[in-house]
Amino acid sequence: MTKLTFPEGFLWGGATAANQCEGAYDADGRGLANVDVAPIGPERGPVIVGKRKMFDFEEGYHYPAKVGIDMYNRYKEDIALFGEMGFKTYRLSIAWTRIFPKGDELEPNEKGLQFYEDLFKECHKYGIEPLVTITHFDCPMHLIKEYGGWRNRKMLEFYERLCRTLFTRYKGLVKYWLTFNEINMILHAPFMGAGLYFEEGENEEQVKYQAAHHELVASAIATKIAHEIDSENKVGCMLAAGQYYPNTPHPRDVWEAINLDREGYFFVDVQARGEYPNYAKKEWERKGIEIAMEEGDLDILKEHTVDFISFSYYSSRVASGDPEVKDKTAGNIFASLKNPYLDASEWGWQIDPLGLRITLNVIWDRYQKPLFIVENGLGAVDTPDENGYVEDDYRINYLAEHVKTMRDAINEDGVELWGYTTWGCIDLVSAGTGEMKKRYGFIYVDLDNDGKGTLNRSKKKSFDWYKEVIATNGASVK
Ligand code: P53
Q1: Which atom of ligand 1 is nearest to the CA of 424?
Q2: What CATH number does residue 389 fall under?
Q3: Residue 327: its pLDDT value, please?
Q4: d(CA 458, CA 463)
Q5: What pLDDT does residue 49 have?
Q6: Does the beta carbon of 312 sit less than 6 angstroms from any atom of ligand 1?
Q7: Protein residue closest via CA to atom 13 of ligand 1
Q8: 273 secondary structure, DSSP code
Q9: Of 52, 389, 415, 468, whose CB is crowded by the most CB atoms within 10 A?
Q10: Is the pTM of this model over 0.90?
């Protein structure tokens, strides 16, 4: 008989990010951030990749992060619903600009600190362990305007101050931390990922890898401080994952798949093994990329590696070394070739549950550190009835198939996995498109792409389904 349950203490839950759900963008002293000024619509793409300069709200655009789903004011109701589902953990992110509105102040904003303290206490009322992303794409606008975002080494100081403030204030309330959400996003959406805006004619790769070095050192320093302040703290890195498959058995396709995987694993190689991998150093050499480092940087990276590796997984990817093959899938920043064996979501994201087992195994084999799936889910159009109820069997199917392969990775392959938080456990604003229509939640939020709606919450069919999964520790998924 195959075992249907997950390990005891497995951390089931859901995930959100501050800028995609909190709203209240200027409440209680909060400052403006890069993630606020990304509008819905055709300009969003150019803005988040750093090609269209939009450093403030502009006339004629709709900015969904301003209101989000108003969680800033409704978090008690929302956490009560998470509690009802039996969440063991809730992954959320801190809005940097609530704590340091401009980013370079010496003293934090007490109202911002109090907000998260109250929120964490609310979680603990229901036995929910917070899992906190220190930065989920957000960077104070002031730091972008004054310093150029993560291209500037000064960012280390500001980030360190943020981390020290958080670890000190929330000692005993939070023990799971992630330093940077999807750190590899810096390569694909550098304005959203790291506050990078490019000037005409600039060597973008040089800037991106320099900024990446700053983030990697900042992450190691954060890990060091977290452990010093509380030895109970567990710090993880976070990768937008999804294994690359070769388009054909042609060796050049296999080689391309390896190279594209390395673009992402590069970050984890540094954060989990503590060293820049040779393949990256060689590539920088070939491309004339020179990374300015200070004395001690490499020691810090070596000495303060992460305790666990977390990642998001939505889909596998396909690579071709053949320049003629260009049939790209739509709708994802990580544009990849189409895999003819897979179905896709309404946004063209290909659905591959076995790919999750594959990704888990590859990462486990490579690092031998505990893993945590901190995002997975299906973005879909939901049609609620008059009571706000959604019969979302498509979402249940997607999640069930992924729960099964994750269980296989643990029970059949021996992968060490600490937990699973589904993305957007309550409907929220899409990071990639800014839409509300692209929903991931167990909880429906009455709000549309234009910002119209009552903001009322209601349970979908998947709400009770997930509640059962958690109550049976996975055994209800057959
Ligand atoms: P959305 C692609 C594009 C943008 C963000 O994405 C992404 C990805 C997927 O790798 O990363 C994460 O909202 C991110 C979340 C985001 C989620 O994927 O475009 O960490 O903030 O909402 C889903 O459907």
Answers
A1: 22
A2: 3.20.20.80
A3: 56
A4: 9
A5: 95
A6: yes
A7: 430
A8: I
A9: 415
A10: yes
Amino acid 328 reads K
Q: How many Å is the maximal CA-CA distance in the chain? A: 63
Tell me how far apart the alpha carbons of residues 168 and 472 are, in angstroms, rounded to a whole number.
36
Which residue among 313, 314, 374 has the greatest number of ligand 1 atoms within 8 angstroms of its CB, and so is best to mutate?
314
- Rounded distance between C-alpha atoms, residue 361 and residue 463, angstroms: 29
pLDDT (0 to 100) of residue 324: 83
Ligand 1 close to Cβ of residue 431 (< 6 A)? yes
> Atom 16, ligand 1: which residue's CA is nearest?
431
Confidence of residue 335 (pLDDT cuts 50, 70, 90): confident
Q: Is 414 helix (H, G, I), strand (E, B) or coil?
A: coil
CA distance 118 to 116: 5
List Cα–Cα distances, 90 to 72, 133, 176, in angstroms: 15, 11, 10
Catalytic residue, chosen from 375, 386, 435, 468, is 375
Tokens representing 150? 């993560």
DSSP state of 384: -
Give the model's pLDDT for residue 1.
Answer: 65
Which atom of ligand 1 sits closest to the CA of residue 430? 13
Separation of alpha carbons 193 and 220, rounded Å: 18
d(CA 403, CA 392): 17
Q: Which domain holds residue 396?
A: 11-471
Residue 149, in any domain of the structure: yes
**Which pLDDT value is given to residue 2?**
77
pLDDT surpasses 90 at 171: yes
The rounded Å distance from CA 378 to ligand 1 centre is 11
pLDDT > 70? residue 116: yes
* Cβ contact 240:334 at 8 Å: yes
* Confidence class for position 332, pLDDT limits 50, 70, 90: low
Mean pLDDT of the chain: 96
Choose the residue to mutate in 47, 179, 185, 187 for probing ligand 1, maximizing ligand atoms within 8 Å of C-beta. 185
CB-ligand 1 contact for 238 (6 Å cutoff): no
Residue 1: inside a domain, yes or no? no
pLDDT of residue 107: 98
Active-site residue flag, 375: yes
Q: Is the CB of 158 inside a 6 Å radius of any atom of ligand 1?
A: no
Positive or negative, the CA dihedral 419, 421, 349, 389 is positive
pLDDT at 328: 58
What's the pLDDT score for residue 326?
A: 61
Coil/strand/helix, residue 298: helix
SS3 7: coil
Do the domain assignments include residue 5? no
Answer whether 294's CB lies under 8 Å from 235's CB: no
Count of the separate structural domains present in the chain: 1
- Residue 371 half-sphere exposure toward CB, CA atoms < 13 A: 28
Residue 265: what pLDDT?
Answer: 98
What is the best residue among 349, 350, 375 to mutate for testing ligand 1's pocket, by most ligand atoms within 8 Å of CB? Answer: 375
